[in-house]
Amino acid sequence: MAVMAALLTWWENRHIDGALEAARGHYIHPSWLAEDARALLSRAQQAAAAILGSGLHRTDLGVSAPPTPSNSRNGCG
Asked: What is the biggest distance separating any 2 CA atoms in the chain, rounded to whole angstroms?
């Protein structure tokens, strides 16, 4: 049983490593960065999460939706 678990873990890690390698040039993985760049990426991700999770963002900055047939008076947009 332990051998099967070890093989499964090895296979999963191999798959993940392959996917990460295929992502090079398209995405950044923190392990590819120097320590100071990793810290900057972490702060940027936290800032983005704070903004996207804010009540102001959720209410779309108080701007009403553009007219559509369903919310305009005459249905002409």
From this structure: 70
